[in-house]
Amino acid sequence: MKRLAPSVLSADFSKLGEEAAAVERAGAQLLHIDVMDGRFVPNLTIGPAVMKSLIGRTSLPFDVHLMISDPDRYAPLFVTEQTEFITVHAEACTHLHRTLQSVRSLGVKAGVALNPATPLSTVEYVLELADLVLVMSVNPGFGGQSFIPSSLKKIRQLADLRRAEGYSFEIEIDGGVGTANIAEISSAGADIAVAGSAVYGASDVDARVKHLLAEMNGTAAGEK
């Protein structure tokens, strides 16, 4: 079963707990937490205190995406009983192998993210340590951007590499995901899709989550 991870970056922060609970009721399996520091990316978002405020408001596992310059320093702050993944950017890590080892030592799954212009060869020698590879299909920093089509090629290459080498990492896609492209993204090999404005910008969030999941898993009956 493929998974949908709504991004709280696009939620209404005045009622964040309710927004998280709504996507859980609709069937989403993860909650994507976008952490930006204003240095690695040109935006500031939330820190661990905001994420931890959701504990008890939702039982969804946290999918933490650190778009920050010093992930080694801050990753431990995002470890909770609900944290499933902590993903760091290859471009932000001087010693990526060591960073992934460090994340795994915290008792959570380690993910590595690649910006649109970053080739797969950057992470070739750390894939045995990766529980997740996140393909950025927009340039990180802001929600609501348009999907970069060449990301599909990267997903297919990752899926082929995983199959050929016997790796077990999951493939996640983040950026510009919506009803128009999620089926193709899933067919390319993505296991997890992050959707922000496509979920929280919908007039009926429940129906949108259900439709995106159906498209991912090949059970969609019609457009929503």
Descriptive account of the structure:
This protein has 224 residues and is α/β, with parallel strands linked by helices. It has a single domain, classed as Aldolase class I (TIM Barrel, Alpha-Beta Barrel). The chain is built from 8 helices and 8 strands, in the order βαβαβαβαββαβαβαα. The protein has an 8-stranded parallel beta sheet.
CATH architecture label = Alpha-Beta Barrel
Shape: globular
H/E order of the elements?
Answer: EHEHEHEHEEHEHEHH
CATH superfamily: Aldolase class I
Give the low-confidence spans. Answer: none
The largest sheet is: 8 strands, parallel
Cα-to-Cα separation, first versus last residue: 21 Å
List the helices and strands and how they pair.
Blueprint: E1 3-6, H1 16-26, E2 31-36, H2 48-52, E3 62-67, H3 71-74, E4 83-89, H4 96-105, E5 109-114, E6 132-136, H5 151-165, E7 170-174, H6 182-188, E8 192-195, H7 197-200, H8 205-216
Parallel strand pairs: 1-8, 2-3, 3-4, 4-5, 5-6, 6-7, 7-8
Short description:
The chain is of the alpha/beta class and 224 residues long.
List key phrases describing it.
TIM Barrel; 224 residues; alpha/beta
